[in-house]
Amino acid sequence: MSLTVVGSVAFDSVETPFDKRERMLGGAATHFALAASFFDEVHVVGVVGDDFTAEHEGVLTAHGIHIDDIEHVAGGKTFFWAGKYHDNMNSRDTLDTQLNVFETFAPKLSPSSQTSETVFLANIQPSLQLDVLDQCTNAKFVALDSMDLWINIAKDDLLKVLARVDCVILNDEEIEMLTGKPTSVSAAQALLDLGPSVVVAKQGKYGAGVITREGSFWLPAYPLHEVNDPTGAGDTFAGGFVGYLAAHPERPVTFEALRRAMAYGSAIASYNVEEFGTDRVSRLTGPEVVARVQELEKITRFDGATQVDLRR
Amino acid sequence: MSLTVVGSVAFDSVETPFDKRERMLGGAATHFALAASFFDEVHVVGVVGDDFTAEHEGVLTAHGIHIDDIEHVAGGKTFFWAGKYHDNMNSRDTLDTQLNVFETFAPKLSPSSQTSETVFLANIQPSLQLDVLDQCTNAKFVALDSMDLWINIAKDDLLKVLARVDCVILNDEEIEMLTGKPTSVSAAQALLDLGPSVVVAKQGKYGAGVITREGSFWLPAYPLHEVNDPTGAGDTFAGGFVGYLAAHPERPVTFEALRRAMAYGSAIASYNVEEFGTDRVSRLTGPEVVARVQELEKITRFDGATQVDLRR
User: Fold this and answer.
1) For residue A226, which phi and psi values (nearest 5 degrees)?
2) d(CA A133, CA A86)
3) Under CATH, which number does the domain A2-300 receive?
4) How confident is the model at residue A58 (pLDDT cuts 50, 70, 90)?
5) Range 31-90 of B in CB contact (< 8 A) with A
6) Do the beta carbons of residue A302 and residue B208 sit within 8 Å?
7) pLDDT for B297
8) What are the sequence ranges of the domains in chain B?
9) CATH class held by domain B2-298
């Protein structure tokens, strides 16, 4: 089995109320791949420039992540993003975006990336997501991310992609915006009518829910004493979530697998935000992930069965 | 056993993107009492004007709620609030606030209200909360709500109340503002150092967490297809939460009781927002509450124990 992710590899400069870092390795595909590498062989399809060095490659290859399909554009510069987080760390301003080589990114999947049965289309132009889908002849489970920009300027293409994927992973505000429905539940149900069988509504620092035609499951975020860099949390969550499903190939996916995938995605994402960039997840170990999943279960479980004497 | 709540009885005019209602019975003490009446005898201490009629009294007395300590000010008008919800229903603008008789509210507890072992200080001026505490000679468990206004203009008094209560129930943003800490966990821990042994961080439409020195428990909000009026959701939650604890008088409160109190508070609050004002909770039945608690358990439970084969 293997898992292919198509998306951005980038450098991020991040400022928070407490600290700042310059030009860290980042990008959706990077964060996704590091999280997914706990579960499966991961192929990254992306594009970088001359400033992407052997040291950066090493962050990925150290975890067995395949980088053959990361195209190097000679003379080009890698996608760069700079942002500043507000006091509550749940919202941010973009200070700078330099698409650079990412502007003309045309994903080309090598035969080995094409063999993957699981594919994650990170947040890129919907027309490119469609191109990738045409190349993924072996895909059995495809998940998609997107953003408000594409909902606004490329909704038709986005709807075409939606009709061809199994799973949508978006922020709750994005699914509400995309469907024009006022709640996550009504928006998710509208999305299920458009093609996907699984909808994940991410809720930022609060957690996430997964909704299928069978029901829903909701998981609070792991409570942290300190958050140092939320960048990439959503992609890290997606990496754990989709990675778990890639490694548990019963299809259609079972609701039980979805619940556990949510817990693993959430656990790894909670580590991601503890430190800047990829620092924490790069050195994260399996036992640490398992420990946090168990902790998540402990702090969310209650006994709803015991009879309570009500006066009404 | 009995439970006393001190706070606002009001009329609310509410506008949402979908509908509007004029001068509905509302106020923190009203919503709290209706929810708490599932668990215990409730005494409401408040103040109203001539516009508060037998019909309004009936909404409370129909559920055995004691209203002897709701003072009627002859020639006065009841506290009035008007607000308009934004598209996502999680934020709102206040259109009008007329304190009326509430402006000179001086809570006076009759002997029967004073016998309560459980007390909820709804969101009123901290100096009044202190007055009430002096009158509650029999209190074994006191919980408190407040708001950003008091944190800004009466923080010293608020800290004095905090030092004397067992439980604080605030929005996550409020506990962060009150303590100057950036996360719910760090803010709650700072609050635990100020006196209370239980901190509840409400997260609006996302759910809530309870934090003690023993640990924490986090519960997502019950997912609704439709939300029609979020007004009073926090007070309804508090009513279910504190009401449950009042009816389970083991002191100090056990963590097990806190988890279940969270579930009952959350379940009743989810009904509250389904319809305008007190409409839904007024006719809510015990079996409906129990069913939603069980549903909440079902949609939040996962198996974190099963061994997963990780590659790292």
Assistant:
1) -140, 135
2) 37
3) 3.40.1190.20
4) very high
5) 37-40, 63-64, 87-89
6) no
7) 98
8) 2-298
9) alpha beta
